[in-house]
């Protein structure tokens, strides 16, 4: 979750025309944490009721980058000369309000899908061959940002990468003893797989400590972006306590092109979350989620995204697959623990200095972290092809062409943003934003090709493998779906 939380202000900050030391970056992180905590409580209590964390989604960030790269949102050339604080705030708030409006309206699609129970119908057409290229493109689309921040100091960036890789891969089975604890069966200290559960935080923390030592010893000269005192002004200027509230940046604005582009992020997040629900249920020892629970979960996720837009996080919320892996490691699959985590996120969000500390992380450390996190996002996209026949030349073509052409078109459009001229500003905006969003292009190509080129269900990865729980199965004493039932009302709202 740390990666997605830090990514929003770090990646979008310059595109929003925010000053490097603007304390509102810390307020953005606090807002993301607040909304993520609230969405986690809603999902674990009224949604699927599975122990799954909600957090910022990279799919929304990719679309936001395309929107903010529009000519009308380019930063003023005299930005550095603007000293009036209110004028400077209005410049970046105009831009984030556009993102807010797109997220709110686009997320209504997810609310609609969950509310009217049409998840099963759309999954017949939004197949793994369409979803995999789209999610893969999320990671690949952000490689420039990873390189940009890593290039501030490649030595520190590579150090961060090595630390995260060592902790997550080579030390994954190392369990450290926890002081002042006792195993009731053996009488020894309880040992916990710290490296496997917190590899990113530990990697960033160790790299940060090294940067601090090199800062106080002046190994890094003043002005070096690796110094830990570069962004200290953000910490000192951020309020100790601040309560995020809806429309804190102003009333959102809505444009058709931005909404349509953001819908691609909504669809990608929706389909990925459905897979997360089944994975979470399997790892936590619950029965497969019934249809009504999945619909409820998607509905609550849609509500969470709408709330994210209202609060102005700059991104939407989605189920975090990293949390599911942590359940398998820690063997703790209680929704009470997840609900407590949601409350902790809300409490930390109210402490402004917490968000400021995250913003003050040296940029090369963030760049190194992005290299690992975004690579993992791309790999998660490819993992959706587990049931697809990869010996099929049909499938190889659809996957390869969708990813490659999505990357090609988006990069070309970024270099030639004014090339489209239909005579209508609205149409120009729609086509430009959609074609700049590699995730949308790859999804569209995968969707069209997989649904039009002849292929068997087995070949396309649509043949049933593990039977999904249905509402009828809940009458079985051995599978009564208790984990997913809401008190008193489940029988009235099943769909």
Give a nutshell description of this structure.
Helices cover 63% and strands 2% of the residues. The chain has helices at 2-15, 24-45, 58-68, 85-115, 119-122, 128-141, 143-150, 154-170, 194-197, 199-216, 232-237, 256-284, 291-311, 321-330, 335-350, 352-359, 363-383, 393-415, 425-436, 438-452, 457-460, 490-493; strands at 54-56, 176-177, 191-192, 317-319. The radius of gyration is 23 Å and the shape is globular.
Describe the structure.
The chain contains 22 helices and 4 strands. The longest helix is centred in the N-terminal third of the chain and has 31 residues, at 85-115. Helix 12 crosses helix 13 (291-311). The radius of gyration is 23 Å and the shape is globular. It has helices at residues 2-15, 24-45, 58-68, 85-115, 119-122, 128-141, 143-150, 154-170, 194-197, 199-216, 232-237, 256-284, 291-311, 321-330, 335-350, 352-359, 363-383, 393-415, 425-436, 438-452, 457-460, 490-493; strands at residues 54-56, 176-177, 191-192, 317-319. The strands form 2 sheets. A two-stranded antiparallel ribbon has the order 1-4. Residues 469-479 have low confidence and may be disordered. By secondary structure, the chain is mainly α.
What is the topology?
Elements: H1 2-15, H2 24-45, E1 54-56, H3 58-68, H4 85-115, H5 119-122, H6 128-141, H7 143-150, H8 154-170, E2 176-177, E3 191-192, H9 194-197, H10 199-216, H11 232-237, H12 256-284, H13 291-311, E4 317-319, H14 321-330, H15 335-350, H16 352-359, H17 363-383, H18 393-415, H19 425-436, H20 438-452, H21 457-460, H22 490-493
Antiparallel strand pairs: 1-4, 2-3
């Amino acid at each position: 979750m740390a990666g997605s939380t830090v990514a929003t202000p770090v990646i979008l900050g310059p595109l929003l025309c925010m000053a490097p030391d603007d304390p509102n970056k810390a307020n953005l992180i606090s807002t993301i944490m607040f909304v993520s905590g609230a969405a986690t409580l809603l999902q674990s209590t009224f949604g699927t009721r599975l122990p799954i964390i909600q957090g910022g989604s990279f799919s929304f960030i990719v679309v936001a980058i395309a929107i903010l790269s529009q000519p009308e949102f380019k930063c003023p050339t005299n930005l550095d000369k603007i000293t009036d604080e209110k004028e400077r705030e209005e410049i970046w708030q105009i831009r984030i309000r556009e993102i807010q409006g797109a997220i709110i309206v686009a997320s209504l699609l997810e609310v609609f899908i969950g509310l009217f129970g049409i998840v099963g119908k759309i999954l017949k057409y939004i197949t793994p061959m369409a979803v995999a290229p789209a999610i893969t493109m999320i990671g690949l689309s952000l490689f420039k940002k990873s390189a940009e921040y890593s290039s501030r100091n490649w030595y520190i960036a590579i150090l961060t990468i090595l630390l995260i890789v060592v902790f997550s891969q080579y030390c994954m089975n190392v369990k450290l003893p926890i002081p002042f604890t006792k195993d009731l069966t053996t009488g020894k200290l309880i040992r916990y797989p710290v490296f496997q559960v917190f590899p990113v935080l530990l990697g960033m923390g160790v790299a940060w400590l090294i940067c601090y030592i090199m800062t106080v010893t002046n190994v890094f000269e003043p002005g070096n972006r690796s110094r830990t005192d570069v962004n200290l002004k953000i910490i000192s200027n951020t309020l100790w306590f601040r309560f995020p509230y809806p429309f804190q940046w102003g009333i959102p604005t809505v444009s058709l092109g931005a909404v349509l582009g953001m819908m691609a992020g909504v669809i990608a997040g929706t389909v990925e979350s459905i897979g997360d629900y089944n994975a979470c249920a399997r790892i936590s020892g619950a029965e497969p989620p019934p249809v009504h629970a999945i619909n409820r979960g998607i509905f609550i996720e849609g509500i969470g995204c709408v709330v994210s837009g209202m609060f102005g996080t700059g991104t939407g919320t989605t189920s975090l697959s990293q949390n599911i892996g942590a359940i398998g490691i820690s063997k703790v699959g209680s929704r009470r623990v997840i609900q407590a985590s949601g409350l902790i996120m809300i409490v930390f969000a109210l402490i402004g200095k917490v968000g400021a500390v995250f913003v003050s992380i040296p940029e090369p450390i963030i760049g190194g972290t992005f290299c690992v996190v975004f690579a993992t996002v791309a790999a998660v996209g490819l993992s959706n092809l587990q049931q697809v026949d990869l010996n099929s030349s049909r499938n190889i073509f659809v996957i390869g062409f969708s990813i490659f052409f999505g990357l090609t078109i988006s990069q070309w459009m970024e270099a030639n943003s004014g090339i489209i001229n239909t005579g209508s500003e609205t149409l120009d905006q729609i086509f430009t934003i959609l074609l700049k969003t590699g995730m949308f292009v790859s999804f569209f190509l995968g969707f069209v090709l997989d649904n039009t080129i002849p292929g068997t269900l087995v070949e396309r990865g649509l043949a049933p493998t593990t039977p999904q729980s249905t509402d009828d199965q809940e009458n079985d004493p051995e599978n009564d779906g208790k984990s997913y039932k809401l008190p008193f009302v489940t029988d009235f709202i099943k769909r």
